[in-house]
Design a protein that fits this description.
32% strand, Pseudouridine synthase, 10-stranded mixed beta sheet, 20% helix, EC 5.4.99.25, alpha+beta
């Protein structure tokens, strides 16, 4: 049965693992028969969680949603690295981690990863350089040292950890637009004279909009939408 098309709304959707954010947009465009649609903030393919999908005239609100603070939960693991800083690629480095304590992690976070920070985005990211996505450079064998990836500013409002299962550490981060959680994980590992990769990432909140109120992609219903701003 063809679903009724609802224009000029926005939707909260839970992005599945391995889907790109564009995959979600394309799926919903077909299901809802939308003419104009876009998302307000990319999630990495292996990440899951909240995407805000804007439809029709509401696509003009995308920048507003993008500028809202975002909350992530996840798992990082000390002692190993991958080129993509997550499990998209194979391990390429092993590092000592027995010297790291929970207190050391919290001290590094407090002194170096709260407030204004500067990051080098992962080479496995969708940022464009000379008209080409960084991940296309990476997949063609180009390394980070071969190209000029510009440093970006970000803001970390809060960064909490639980190291009960160390070297696996669970975390919650509240951050600004443009923050790369994978870069945060990479830089935290380096600051502790080790390495680290991102094992799991979920976006749980964008501003006041919560994952708990989102729709499953495969059961998407265009009649279930948020109130128009």
């Amino acid at each position: 049965m063809e679903l009724e098309r609802i224009e000029n709304q926005f939707y909260l959707v839970d992005k599945p693992a391995t889907w790109t954010s564009f995959d979600v947009v394309r799926k919903l465009k077909n299901l809802g028969k939308f003419k104009k649609i876009g998302h307000a903030g990319t999630l990495d393919p292996l990440a899951t969680g909240l995407l805000i999908i804007c439809v029709g005239k509401h696509t003009k609100k995308i920048e507003y949603f993008q500028n809202l603070p975002k909350t992530y939960t996840g798992e990082l693991v000390f002692g190993k690295t991958t080129p993509s800083i997550d499990l998209e690629t194979e391990f390429d480095g092993h590092f000592p981690f027995d010297h790291i304590t929970k207190e050391m992690i919290e001290e590094r976070i407090s002194n170096h990863f709260i407030g204004e920070i500067r990051q080098v985005p992962p080479i496995y990211s969708a940022i464009k350089l000379d008209g080409k996505r960084l991940y296309n450079y990476a997949r063609s064998g180009v390394s980070e040292t071969d190209i000029d990836i510009k440093i970006r500013d970000a803001f970390i409002y809060d960064f909490k950890i639980d190291a009960a299962s160390f070297p696996l550490v669970t975390f919650e981060v509240v951050c600004s637009k443009g923050t790369y959680i994978r870069s945060l994980v990479r830089d935290l590992g380096i600051s502790l004279e080790s390495g680290a990769y991102l094992k799991k990432l979920i976006r749980t909140q964008i501003g006041d909009y919560c994952l708990t109120n989102s729709q499953d992609v495969m059961n998407f219903n265009p009649l279930i939408y948020e109130e128009v701003l």
